[in-house]
Design goal:
By secondary structure, the protein is of the alpha+beta class. The chain contains 28 helices and 13 strands. It has four domains: about 350 residues, no CATH class; about 160 residues, no CATH class; about 100 residues, Immunoglobulin-like, CATH 2.60.40; about 90 residues, no CATH class. The strands form three sheets. Strands 7, 8, 11, 12 and 13 form a five-stranded antiparallel β-sheet that branches. β3 and β4 form a beta hairpin. α10 packs antiparallel against α12 and α25 packs parallel to α27. The chain is globular, with a radius of gyration of 32 Å.
Length: about 750
């Protein structure tokens, strides 16, 4: 990455400042800033503070030969970045792209998070229960061990400057005169004032719901306290600490056995650690409240990348120090061994890939050539699911402007459309909103719609009122893709409409439209398609996995296989006849055994807890059709059987749910099924977020945080059930801690 090169450029410049070296520092900063917004801001702050530290340590604080090339290079780099990133600034002002303090706090790390490894790490094992993978920051024991070697094993003069350490001038400590004493007294007063104001700010702070102004009360005085305290210690220790020989922090660092380079690496490691604490510490609080660009960042925990760069440099020095303990002929073997150990400890392979059908569905290929004039809206709109990613990916095929999308910043237009779609019934005002947005075509993916008739009713009302016109239908999945045009926006309707020609089922496009809108019935597909009943995306099977569904094709179905672990394991599914299905969908007599089912009693060896499933169907032509790739958490067999209840809290919960005596006895004996049934019966709110909030209140006795609501909304959007949500909360550590003895 560019961050290590920026640190290397800073070290190289610090050894011998020059215009050439300054330019080579500016280049990686430009490329780093263009690659990622977090790295731009975090890397810029780390480089700037690192340059100040270098100047102070090397006694170049007021040396123009040090600062002028560096400032010019950084100014040019920031000028290039300003031109390149100006559109983002305009968009931020236009759409209000700012984070609120509580959101940044949710993605701020705690010190304990630095001991939690990523769920992707194969050596330490997955931690799939952790709510924010962004805050799993453990860098690895080997890196920490090697970094400690660089601090403990290196001795002054042991390594020459070509290895790692540059010489440091320790002469010329400032004299203790009256001017210096007045400065120290002023800094002491500033520290005291900062401490008092920080305490007042902490007393007023409003926790997770804090605004920017609330956080500012504590962050600004804390930054003043730390800055003034550092300056005070740099000039002189307090009297009680004065040991004579090293009377200040500056003198101690200049006399350290570590060179400037390693001290700079230690500084980056500490800076990244403190920054990753985000709104849990003063440093990022100060940046967040005082500098607007930092309010565009959601995850302060990504400051950890600065720490990782510093640790990597320290680990390299530690490896060199360790190798120096061996004979020269054995040193290459030491480096090779350390490399192998690091690869084993930090291994993420095999990486679980999401398999995506490269061939675009027919609707997108048609859209690429159609003479349409307006933007495209695809329905349903997925709030947190993969649907919006699919829409964005398929936009690469048709290249039309779309109203869909997904980002860390929600689109206000899309939010309004989504909110209108969730109304019952959907009102005609939505047509006005779409026309103002320039929408010309609406694509409805029938497979992804729920059974509620509100959207179909809205479409029918639009057609009856003359605001909407049906264009055509395309094969896709079991329900097809349906295209509608807004009459006031789309000017080329005549060229877009399909001819009124009957399909193999004897239905014309108009008749298929009636079946879709009025009956929500099946229409004919001229291609092989699959319907999966179980499991759903995001399910967490407990021991036994049941896979069931059906496949129909005008060419017959020859084989159905279950593919797990990115193709690592393939199992056959049992196929069977299904007369009732043929009665409902009578157009595929060629498929004699449409049903398929497989029961896998336990997770096979070699499959991870986080695994995936793909259904492959081979039709009579020998072509393979795959169902959407599913991700699963496949647990070993576990049962929700609790017998050590907290009697007082359980009684209060059962009373609130009006659970009968027989069911209450079963729950106390360990069977939580009646409890799940009672919760589902009590909370029937059609809005899923309201359902999640209510379940949290009943089971955990507190409001649901935003990220928890987002997580369970995503699971529901991907096909999980409300029962699955309740069972997941019942299995959580927080529920067990609250409700069990």
């Amino acid at each position: 990455g560019w961050l290590p090169l920026a640190l290397a450029g800073l070290i190289w410049y610090g050894r011998k400042p020059s215009w050439q070296r300054a330019s080579l520092l500016g280049l990686p900063l430009i490329l780093n800033g263009l690659s990622n917004g977090h790295w731009l801001l975090f890397g810029g702050v780390a480089t700037g503070l690192g340059a100040m530290l270098l100047a102070i340590l090397s006694r170049r604080t007021f040396d123009r030969r040090f600062w002028i090339p560096l400032i010019v290079s950084l100014a040019i780099a920031h000028g290039v970045l300003f031109v390149a990133l100006r559109p983002y600034s305009i968009a931020a002002d236009l759409y209000g792209m700012r984070r609120w303090a509580g959101e940044a706090k949710a993605y701020s790390a705690k010190l304990s998070d630095w001991m939690i490894a990523s769920s992707r790490n194969r050596f330490y094992g997955g931690n799939t229960s952790y709510s924010h993978p962004e805050t799993c920051l453990f860098p690895g024991a080997v890196v920490l061990l090697l970094s400690s070697f660089s601090l403990l094993l290196l001795r002054r003069g042991e390594l020459d400057a070509r290895d790692v350490c540059a010489p440091v001038d320790t002469a010329g400590e400032p004299a203790d005169d009256e001017k210096r004493r007045r400065l120290l007294r002023a800094l002491d007063a500033l520290c005291f004032a900062g401490f008092v104001m920080m305490c007042i700010g902490f007393a007023d702070r409003a926790g997770d719901d804090a605004t920017v102004e609330t956080w500012r009360k504590a962050a600004l005085p804390a930054m003043v306290l730390v800055s003034a305290g550092f300056a005070r210690l740099w000039i002189a220790w307090p009297g009680a600490w004065d040991r004579g020989a090293e009377a200040s922090l500056g003198a101690k660092l200049r006399g350290s056995h570590l060179g400037l380079e390693l001290q700079l690496c230690v500084f980056w490691a500490i800076l990244g650690l403190v920054g990753s604490l985000g709104m849990n510490s003063f440093f990022h609080q100060f940046l967040f409240t005082q500098l607007a660009p930092f309010r565009s960042l959601r995850v302060p925990a990504r400051w950890s990348m600065i720490a990782y760069v510093g640790l990597a440099a320290l680990a390299a020095a530690g490896a060199l120090a360790l190798a120096k303990r061996f004979r020269e002929s054995r040193r290459p073997a030491v480096f090779v061994a350390l490399g192998i150990v690091l690869l084993l400890e930090l291994r993420a392979a095999p990486i679980r890939w999401y398999f995506f059908e490269p061939k675009a569905p027919a609707v997108y290929e048609w859209l690429a050539e159609a003479p349409a004039s307006g933007a495209v809206l695809e329905l349903p709109i997925a709030q947190y699911g993969w649907g919006e990613y699919v829409y964005l990916f398929r936009q690469l095929t048709h290249r039309r402007p779309i109203l869909n999308g997904i980002s860390g910043y929600p689109s206000k237009l899309l939010d309004r459309i989504r909110a209108a779609m969730q109304e019952t019934p959907v009102t005609g005002d939505l047509f006005d909103e779409l026309e103002r947005a320039g929408c010309g075509l609406i694509i409805v993916h029938n497979d992804r719609l729920d059974a509620a008739p509100s959207l179909r009713t809205w479409l029918k009302q639009g057609i009856d009122s003359g605001r909407l016109a049906f264009v055509r239908r395309f094969d896709h999945g079991s329900g097809g893709d349906w295209i509608f045009a807004l009459m006031n926006t789309e000017k080329n309707l005549g060229a877009l409409r399909a001819p009124e020609v009957a399909d193999a089922a004897g239905h014309t496009p108009s008749e298929n439209l009636r079946i879709f809108l009025e009956e929500n019935g099946r229409t004919y597909n001229a291609s092989t398609y699959i319907w999966l009943d179980t499991p759903k995306y995001g399910d967490e099977p407990d021991g036994e996995l049941i896979v069931s569904g059906w496949a129909l094709s005008p060419y017959d179905v020859k084989d159905v296989r279950l593919v797990f672990g990115n193709g690592a394991l393939s199992l056959p599914a049992q196929r069977y006849e299904w007369p009732r299905l043929h009665e409902l969908i009578p157009w595929y007599p060629q498929t004699r055994r449409p049903g398929f089912k497989a029961v896998v009693p336990t997770r096979p060896d070699g499959l991870d807890l986080e695994t995936d499933l793909r259904i492959d169907v081979v039709d009579g032509r020998g072509e393979t059709v795959s169902y959407d790739h599913l991700f699963l958490l496949w647990h070993p067999r576990r049962t929700l059987a609790y017998t050590t209840w907290n009697d007082q809290r359980l009684s209060a919960l059962l009373s609130a749910l009006s659970v009968g005596d027989d069911d209450a006895a079963e729950i106390r004996a360990g069977d939580v099924t009646p409890l799940v049934d009672a919760l589902l019966a009590r909370h029937r709110d059609p809005k899923p977020d309201a359902f999640i909030v209510a379940i949290y209140r009943d089971l955990l006795g507190r409001p649901a945080e935003d990220d928890a609501i987002a997580f369970y909304l995503m699971r529901l959007d991907r096909g999980s059930t409300r029962r699955g949500v309740v069972e997941a909360i019942l299995a959580s550590k927080e529920f067990r801690k609250r409700m069990l003895r």
